[in-house]
Write the structure tokens for this entry.
Amino acid sequence: MKPTNSLERVLAVLEVFSEERLEWMPEDLMRELGYSRPTLYRYLKILKDAGFLMSTRNSGVTLGPKVVEMDYLTRRSDALVLHGVPYLKELTTAYSCTAMVLRWYGNKILCVVSESSAKKPISSYPRGRPMPLGRGAIARSIMAFLPRPRLLPLVERNLADLRSVGLGDTAEDVLKSLKKVRKAGFSVAYGEVTPGAVGIAAPIFDDRHYPIASVCVTIAGNLVTGALIDQIGAEVRRVALQISADQPRQGRKSKP
Amino acid sequence: MKPTNSLERVLAVLEVFSEERLEWMPEDLMRELGYSRPTLYRYLKILKDAGFLMSTRNSGVTLGPKVVEMDYLTRRSDALVLHGVPYLKELTTAYSCTAMVLRWYGNKILCVVSESSAKKPISSYPRGRPMPLGRGAIARSIMAFLPRPRLLPLVERNLADLRSVGLGDTAEDVLKSLKKVRKAGFSVAYGEVTPGAVGIAAPIFDDRHYPIASVCVTIAGNLVTGALIDQIGAEVRRVALQISADQPRQGRKSKP
DNA sequence: CATCATAATCTCATATTAAGAGATTTTGTT
DNA sequence: AACAAAATCTCTTAATATGAGATTATGATG
């Protein structure tokens, strides 16, 4: 995963920005990335000229306006956003909840669009905020449908989290729990991500039945009973499958 | 502006995505960018692995989830967004309108945050959608405060648009009109961007009194009279100056 | 299921050009 | 005006990006 060529090294500059560190000083970037002074400044100049970065008054750098513009384009081009919204509205009309579509990418889950009918929406994960893989109904709904060789390393890497939410002590136990999710077709989580909130999620598949995203409904725990959860689960599953079916058929493989 | 090194050439791939062309086929990219087949595929692989691009079923490429994640970070790190929101709320509380902060970057104006109290918001420029420089109160509020050497080429490049909204026939005439805007401290536009909507804008300055952004209020034309527009203009100007003052002092120059 | 057409990747010799040490200039502060 | 810090420049060398062409995946078709 270490950058091996100069192309990846420029992009690596953009990778260091995170919620914990939104602004960087050139000096710190040199240390963090291990680039020489002229090289780093060269990279910064290129990234600034392209609008990916901008410099702040106190000579730090932050992500720039080009990112904002590209995100706008992403909202217009993402098939899951475009096809998903009407279905999410169905769900928020039927229940007082937050409904969203989340993409799986890297080792993260990322909300790409959400709709809400709850008076006081409880989700702390708006568009673009990455969620960890180990907790919550969403991650589980996706993992449950991964082929074993792809799944196992993932489970092992996130075992601590998975254990803490009671999925099982060993990797094999976790796999068993996930098999049940697979059978049900949707997953449920009680307050794993946000206290008091119930998450109900089902996977979206690509044309090879490979899970690439998830539909999730988040609803206040005091609003739901066991029977209602099953009902919502069935609806979420239906919606996820319909969004899957809306995706264009045919095509080549893509790195998940 | 033509890419001169391989670093800029990778980034140039991201530049071709636009509202008119949200998805590209590799073959078309080769033609558009003039790259050889192996080189293009190399670039695509790197950009896909980093999440900047993703491939769709029918083997086209679109902007990817990393963009979404970075935009989330931008919302959290942009000083204008962070400081601007409370002021925008002031404006939307006082009037039934849409109030926004827009950055000036490249040859474009870009909304970075907006608030609305209008029943039916009329702006067609949400976060991230670039506006042209030649029309609207926003662009004018910024141009009016640019030093002449910076301004003149800009006016000449956008003369057709500027003329069509009645700012003057020649570049010199336009400069005169802008001088009046500068004196007033804010600019007004009647239906230049959206028919029936009045735009009222004032610039945000950096610590060298250089305009870098703008505050704009958009309000339905039938809701305002001349006197009210002046009142709103004064408020918008006040807000823009306060946001300017909130910016951290000191620092080095940045390319506008 | 075999064949075909297209898309994506690989190989490798060569020219291109990124990289970095250190000097120099620019910028803001005292 | 003088100083300190930040950013850029110069120039040589080693590193590596490039593309023609061959090769391998991949999905479509009969």
Summary: Chain B has ten helices and eight strands.
